[in-house]
Structures are given as structure tokens and as C-alpha cells.
Design brief:
Layout: E1 2-6, E2 9-11, E3 32-34, H1 36-52, E4 55-61, H2 67-76, E5 80-84, H3 94-108, E6 112-116, H4 127-135, E7 139-149, E8 152-158, E9 163-169, E10 172-176, H5 188-194, E11 199-202, H6 215-218, H7 244-254
Parallel strand pairs: 1-4, 1-6, 4-5, 5-11, 6-10, 7-10
Antiparallel strand pairs: 2-3, 7-8, 8-9
Helix pairs in contact: 2-5, 3-4
The chain binds flavin-adenine dinucleotide.
Length: about 260
């Protein structure tokens, strides 16, 4: 079974996020990391490969430095990495991103495409839906348990009220939640071995994407202005001199919250 895992490099959790007032885009110049639920998606792909055999390929659209994060997936055990990297893709919104990612996936012809549920920078939780629509494949999101049986999958999908159990024929797209597994840490052997695994950087043209369908020209949304959140005016700072607990209770009582 061939499994493609879509992953994204996001700003590391320790990096203060800043929107560039000139481009209106997120400043991605600081330390990057593999998006957290994408690590769960890689782990799930590796478990499925261990059970059913096959290949795990990680696929991403991003700047060349995103390969650093893809290498973490290789160190965990993925077989190869494909990074679509092209200046023309800068400024791609969801519509343009989903087009380029779907084209890269078409080239892979995977039986199963895994996504993380949500990226910690864009927070859209929507790319998998857009990509599955472009690929015309069934899609199950928020999956907390996944099994493959012959030519179909069954996903236990977390909802507000419990679980939905959904089956779909392969090839299909699945977005996993962070409850699905406990990702392994890359071993030293895995980290060293990752360096020699295939790491392909391809252009938009290589995956059949017309440059004008990505970047700002291919995007349907425009960010017209960005601004930091307004400071909250009713903040109260309580220093703990031994009476902080009482003061907090007094404050909450004043607000009629206790
Ligand atoms: C006007 C505008 C301009 C933008 N310009 C840029 C830009 O210049 N550079 C930039 O990086 N982003 C840019 N973005 C953000 C970009 O469109 C989103 O990152 C992208 O659409 C994915 O959305 P998300 O981050 O909300 O991911 P979600 O929908 O929350 O992600 C869900 C899952 O999709 C997968 N995934 C997400 N992104 C990728 C990816 N790139 N490759 C492979 N898999 C992925 C991961 O598995 C992830 O867990 C821009 C957005 C707008 C609106």
C-alpha cells in the first residue's frame, strides 16, 4: 500500500508569531518545526506500513528550508520526501495551496492520503477537505482510530457527542486527530539514515501546476490589512504576596463569576 502524508513546516511553538505589515503574510523567517498533528499522521502511516507493507512518502508545499522539517518524518521512518518549492507559490491562499498540493498528490497515485487535522499557523483545518474535493476522493476527518481492510478503510471519527464510525473505499483521504496515536521519537539511527533517503525538491511545473494558478494571482482571497490585537482594557494584575488566592476570589465575586 502506498501512503502519502501531507505535512507542513510551521513556525516553532517558541517563536513569537508576527504578521509582516508589508506583505500581510506570516513572517516565517524564524525557527520552523513539523506541524504537531502531521507528526501523528506520519506515525499512523508508519504503523499502517508495518501492518500492511508498502511505502510512505511525505509531501509538502513550502520554501526550500521546509525540507528540514520533512527530514524529521524521514527520521521517524518515512521512505522519501517530496517538497514542491517555487517562488511563484509565495502568497498562495487555501484555494491555490489546495490546487498545488492536489497536483503533487496526483503524481504519487497513493492508495491513502493522510493529513494532520490542523496546522498551528493557518489554523484552517480545511486543506484536506479542499484537496479531497479536487482529487474526487472520499474523505474522513478528525479520525481517532483507523483500520484498513482490503480495499477499504474504517475511521472512528471524534464528534462533539461521541464517535461516528465511517467506512470508505480506497483510494481515500483521511485527516487524523492528535488522539490517534503517540508518535515515536526518531532514533539516532533514524536521524542518521534520513540523510540518505530520497529528498526531492520539485517546481510547480514538475507537478503540472501552471504558475498563474498559485501565489497571489491564483488566490481568491486578499488580506487587506493586518493589525495586532487591541490590548484588553480591563486587565487586573495580581502579584502574589501570599494573599493572591483571596484576591482572585474577591475579583471573581465582584464580577459575579463565583
Ligand atoms: C492571502 C493569503 C496569503 C498566504 N500566503 C502564504 C505564503 O506566502 N506562504 C504560506 O506558507 N502560507 C500562506 N498562506 C497560508 C496558506 O494558504 C495556508 O497555509 C494553506 O492554505 C493551508 O491552510 P492552513 O495553514 O490553515 O492548514 P490546515 O487546513 O489547518 O492544515 C490541515 C493539514 O493540511 C496539511 N497541510 C497544510 N498546509 C500544507 C502544505 N503547505 N503542504 C502540505 N500539506 C499541508 C497538513 O497535514 C495540515 O495538518 C496564505 C494565506 C492567505 C489567505
Amino acid at each position: 500500500m502506498k501512503i502519502a502524508v501531507c505535512v507542513k513546516q510551521v513556525p516553532d511553538a517558541t517563536v513569537h508569531k508576527r504578521l509582516d505589515p508589508g506583505t500581510h503574510r506570516l513572517d516565517r523567517s524564524g525557527e520552523g518545526a513539523l506541524n504537531a498533528t502531521d507528526v501523528n499522521a506520519v506515525e499512523e502511516a508508519l504503523r499502517l506500513k508495518e501492518a500492511h507493507g508498502g511505502e510512505v512518502v511525505v509531501v509538502s508545499l513550502g520554501p526550500e528550508r521546509a525540507m528540514e522539517s520533512l527530514r524529521k518524518a524521514l527520521a521517524m521512518g518515512a521512505d522519501r520526501a517530496v517538497l514542491v518549492s517555487d517562488e511563484a507559490a509565495a502568497g498562495s491562499d487555501l484555494v491555490a495551496t489546495s490546487y498545488a498540493v492536489a497536483k503533487a498528490l496526483e503524481r504519487e497515485e497513493a492508495d491513502l492520503v493522510l493529513f494532520g487535522q490542523q496546522a498551528s499557523d493557518g489554523d484552517g483545518a480545511v486543506l484536506w477537505a479542499a484537496v479531497s474535493d479536487r482529487l474526487r476522493r472520499p474523505m474522513v476527518s478528525q479520525v481517532a482510530e483507523l483500520t484498513i481492510d482490503g480495499g477499504s478503510l474504517t475511521g472512528k471519527r471524534q464528534t462533539e457527542f461521541g464517535y461516528d464510525v465511517i467506512s470508505a473505499p480506497l483510494p481515500a483521504v483521511v485527516a487524523v486527530s492528535d488522539a490517534i496515536n503517540e508518535p515515536r521519537y526518531p532514533s539516532l539511527k533514524g536521524i542518521m539514515g534520513a540523510k540518505s533517503k530520497p529528498q526531492e525538491v520539485v517546481s510547480l511545473a514538475d507537478v503540472g501546476v501552471e504558475a498563474e494558478r498559485t501565489g497571489e494571482t491564483g488566490s481568491r482571497t486578499t488580506v487587506r490589512a493586518v493589525a495586532p490585537p487591541a490590548p484588553k482594557s480591563d486587565q487586573v494584575r495580581i502579584e502574589d504576596d501570599g494573599s493572591a488566592a483571596e484576591k482572585i476570589v474577591e475579583y471573581l465575586a465582584e464580577k459575579r463569576l463565583v
